[in-house]
Protein 1
Amino acid sequence: MSNRSEIPVRTRYAPSPTGPQHIGGIRSALFGWLFARHHGGQFILRIEDTDQKRSVPGSLERILESFEWLGMDIDEGPQVGGDYGPYIQSERLELYQTWAKRLVEQGTAYKCFATTEDLAEMRASGGGYDRRYRDISAEQADRLEAQGKPYVIRFKMPLSGQTTGVDMIRGEVVFENAQLQDAVLLKSDGFPTYHLAHIVDDYHMKISHVTRAVEWLPSFPLHIQIWEALGWEKPQFTHLPVLLNPNGKGKLSKRKQQFAADGKSVPVLAHEFIAAGYLPEAVMNFLTNIGWNFGDNREVFTTQEAIERFQLEDVNPANSAYPIAKLDWLNSQYIQDAAVDDLARRLKPVLEAAGYAVDDDLLRRVVPLLQVRLKTLNDVVAMAGFFFADWQAFEAPPSEVLIQRKMDSAAAATVLSGAIPVLQRLDDFGSETQHSVMAAYAKDIGYKNGQVFGSLRAAVTGQRVSPPTFETMEILGRTESIRRIELALQALKERA
Ligand code: GLU
């Protein structure tokens, strides 16, 4: 249990609705979610839309879709509801205004009337905000306000001394107060900044553990000071490591497309994982493995198993390079282990999207041939789309596909034409029988198995890469297989 076991565990994910979800954000959310689930607590989604200029319509829907796809259920949040709502910050403005005012009244925050031009001048002369309104009297402030001068509310950060924060994975972190500015809490339009809004919300939403990206660590002393000024008991904090680009340099960016060693583009946005044909279970496993270890040298585990073991304290504080190569491997493990019907259900829409009309019985027969061969669901199209194409419309592939290594057109024709009567004579067209008889045939005619099997594969599938030749021929059936071999022979003759 948590070291404050009397307090129910409540964690939150608090994204700004600025467009598609970056996988780094999802990974931060995941750690908060796993922790809440481990402790039987609640996981809350809160939308931080106080920077209205950056808000992108439709972001919430995309966030919810990603969570649903991954199987990360939300206990409270927009569209879900809950006792501590609303869960969208722009609907809570009065609350932030009340607390900002309270801080001004108690003297830990102040109204600042510096204009945009004033601030630009301060920046031009090389400094930050020079605190010029920090110590004006209440009367002066009232007078300026009465004149209709716009103002922001700033926090009075202590000018000296140190602030010590405790982070669950970083331990005590000590900051020099003099390094910090008097941050804005409330803007002149009445909207709060992140600094004020998230604290007011974390308090009112009874968040027990704040988990957020390490980018917020420099603001940690400011946040501690604000919590203390408000006189509220602080939650526990974890500043989570972030994902770096695959080469280990710089934060994983969604703007620059990254390329993996095999030239495929690297998915970074949540919906790109769906589009690329990854299974949600594999993506969950993949993300859980970054910066956290299941232990026992196990890399493949279910979400439920991760929940049982997950502790925030075990998260490695170091940022990690995005181990994208692992994802294909993990995904292929999940594909191999999936039940045939389950995998068929997931492959069907991919084939349909590629324009194939999918017969369910045929798909169920094909799936076992694919399980050890697919890295992603999308691979099914190139690997096995031919099964679902119109068989009557099948055409022999180009000669360079038909002709195998160290063979010429005549040799390919000899191999294929000799194979037809052998295949016709088989009592049983099962793949094992075909295999042994064709191996014997290869020996008889003085060719390697690879040359004979490859010629047949090319003839019946039209491709160089496919599921195993004889399993494929078994599914196509004897008549169709032989018809295709004859088409190949004809093509070789016409093109010779
Ligand atoms: N809205 C903030 C962000 O997107 C939330 C940070 C936090 O979790 O406190 O970075």
Note: The radius of gyration is 32 Å.
Protein 2
Amino acid sequence: MSASVLLIYTGGTIGMWADPRTGALRPMDLEHLEEQVPELERVGVRLESVAFETPIDSSDMRPADWVRVARIIGEHYDKHDGFVVLHGSDTMAYTASALSFLLENLSKPVILTGSQLPIGTIRTDAKENLITAIEIAAAKDEQGRAMVPEVAVYFEYRLLRGNRTVKVHAERFEAFRSPNWPALAEAGVRIKWDRSAILPQRAGSLNMHERLDDHVGVVRLFPGISGGWVRSALSSPGLRAAILTTFGSGNGPTDPDFVAALREARERGIHLLNATQCVGGRVEQGRYVTSRAFVELGVIPCADMTVEAALTKAMFLLGQDQPAEDFAQRMAAPIAGELTLG
Ligand code: ASP
């Protein structure tokens, strides 16, 4: 019997059309989207679909929407062999990261895809992305188990681990990279899997989490950043954790007022995390003098996690109501292949 895949349409360019009055791109509904791809009838996979009532541009995605997608997957989990989430590319890496934490013990593929050009346009990249994502979601190994039992992003011939992915280009079809982890597969004439890069099958059944604490923020460091700027950012009401995106291997200014602003936040019990602004590589606190203050203040190094993974992981862990002391330890340990231990 052919495999069964659930298509979850959230919005994004893939399903957009140009409003004739303004020329601006707006999401269309799932029925119109499916009409644009008659090839879907011939992919040899049983397809069912669900859609957000109002499809959205991914810039409007919020943590509650990540939970909404996780819930759809949880509710349909037993009925399907895999899931394809159609999503805008702008924040796809955040959604993919969040889903990788919310869907504990995942043993079926959850493949996010979208496109740079709407599906109805002549040069669209949407059809290949969609059809191959479905093929990957349905793929089985020799033992009949899912080939990719994890959350991944498929875009422009490459399958990448979701929580390792970053959007690196606003226009190119090749919009995503996962600088700190190899591609899980490359699609050419055939799909070439890199089995050593794919997460192993997990024992146990799916444990879907629904709680995320969004009292988490990001403070991007820049040359000349002042203590006042940091104080203002870290005084957001209810803030529990902030990711500092730092220079190079996790460095920041030694300016005493900047450091004092961080210290004040730590004294108020705010967790501070250190993720690099660099696209690739890892944080090594203490390697340079310019990261010594972070060590002294108990800033948590995010190793080689993307900012997207660090942010969503912090939201996930804070949503689990565990003792504050455990937070640093759990941030530093991999949950879904999002970091490499140094
Ligand atoms: N703005 C769009 C979105 O993220 C871009 C895209 O889909 O590629 O929803």
Note: Residues 11-13, 57-59, 88-90, 114, 116 surround aspartic acid (CB under 6 Å).
